[in-house]
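Reagents: none. Just compute today. SpoIIE family protein phosphatase.
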Amino acid sequence: MTMPDLEHALDALAGRVTSLREARTAYPNDLAPTLDATLAELDTAVELLAEAREQLRKAPKRTAGRKDGAQRELKLLRQVFRAFPVPVIVLDGGGVVRRINPETSRMLGSPDGYLVGRSFPLLVDVSRRAAFRSHLTSVLQTGQPSAFETRLAHQGRTHTVQVALTRLTMPGEPQQMVAAVALPTEVQLPEPGARRPEQSDGALLIAAAKRQDLLVKMGKLLLDEQALLRPVAVARATRLLAAEWADWVIADLVRDGLARRSAVMGPKNLPVAGLVRQVEASDPMGSQVVLQVLERRTGVVQEMVDDETLLGFSAEGPLLTAMGAGSLVCVPIGNGDGALTLVRGHDRSPFTLADLAVLQEVGLQLGLAVRAQSSYQSRSRAADALSASVAPRNLPDVPGYEAAAVYHPGSSVGAEFYDVFPVSKGWGFALGGAAGKGEEAASVSAMVRGGLRVLSAWESDPDLVMRKVNEALVAQGTGMFVMAVAGFVKGRTLRMSSAGHHPAVLLQPDGGVRYAAGGGVPLGISPEAETSVETLTVAPGETLVLYSEGLISSRNDRGEPYGEERLADVLARCAGQEPSAVVKAVEEDRNLFSGGQVWDEIVVFALRGV
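Predicted 3D structure written out:
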């Protein structure tokens, strides 16, 4: 065959290829005859190439001639390959794409050449990947063609195809190749030259708006008060991302220098509970992508996952294989606080660089929320510890008496305290508070409360206890003073020492209200304490009531203080009632007066003789 004859045969082949493309378009649901005809034309193309190779061998062996012949052969190959009306992919022995024709790019929705250098089995349905590799190995070893049906998924498109594999030898390639012809059997192919839908201006605008909407939703979610009060920030963020952005969302947080799996969300429409448990149980320190993100503190995106071992392994193999991963993005949480990994399947559009940018911002927001939550909870635990140090959890039973108390912390860490404790041959009680707010004031109050309790174990007079606590407080040099009252109960006799505290109230069975003396100078002002000492008798049915500055100074919406007169009126109405009912009545009346607002700590303590 002469070269003109060969070129004429090639033109005829191109014409028949055009006819096949038109037949495929005209009869999209009847592809079997088109496939048969296409394979016949492929055989014709192989014969033409063999004829061309024979002619080139017979040509004069001049250097220029060999070069020209090889170029003409390659030109012929490329023309046939590009003009072929069905998807054809040339693979090497490992299944890596080496050549891809335009029809394949149109079917899969990817740019020309995008898949070159990537592993073709990653496009194959997970359940059929092992079978594909077996067919590929068989074709390479035996030289016999093979065919099987599977699903291909890429760029959000899914096609059920009949794949035919044929071994071939490529000029200039040292190893044998395999040609894969993939003819869709269910999905109609897009028209040649059609624009990819994700590239349309409208789709790009919608995608940008969706990214902005994610940032807004995430910000609202993480700034909610409950995200600070409870450890819910990570769980909320993963649920939001799984609902709108990915099939799988995995959050790994760094604790004690090691990444630990914190949350895993899988597809809700699939029975993946067992797989979720496998992902939860896997060690993030065995994940290449997580370690890379934690080390470099910058995100990575794989529009097409080309290494299924990136996320680590389960007992059944690579996790990404079991998850059906098509694309992946992994971003840092905060500044080295962890890593956030999102995975999409083959049947969804892949993650892009624009997605990486917005998800890195999400990771930054989540990191800030996690740190704020940790800081808030640390301070909350400290506040709880301080509060526990200024108020007993339970009041002990005092023989011959009934006791009850209410304690409301204010808008900051509490500085008021109260206590009931055993003393030699009786019981002691104390109530008071440092002048100030915050942790320092609370720590000073806790110190005074502890001092009163400890010293009462050796002293028989509450006034001596108050004076020694005053000496210790002055010696500490805190600069704070404390208003306090302490008393010892022995039988029906009650001896009290007051250091600048409000006077106690004695409620009598007939409703009479009598205030004790109170007074004195607060602790911590002078090395020589100036206290007010008083001895009372609490008969059966009488109730001694002690209260904090926060109760008396509570104000209503007109700025009027609650005051001791209103307290006396409320107590008078509680004559004959148990201590628990008395403190509750005072609490309810104060709430009514102040509209439920509490600024300073409120303590009400009642001790009734029985």
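The first strand starts at residue 88 and ends at 91.
Action item: order primers for follow-up constructs.
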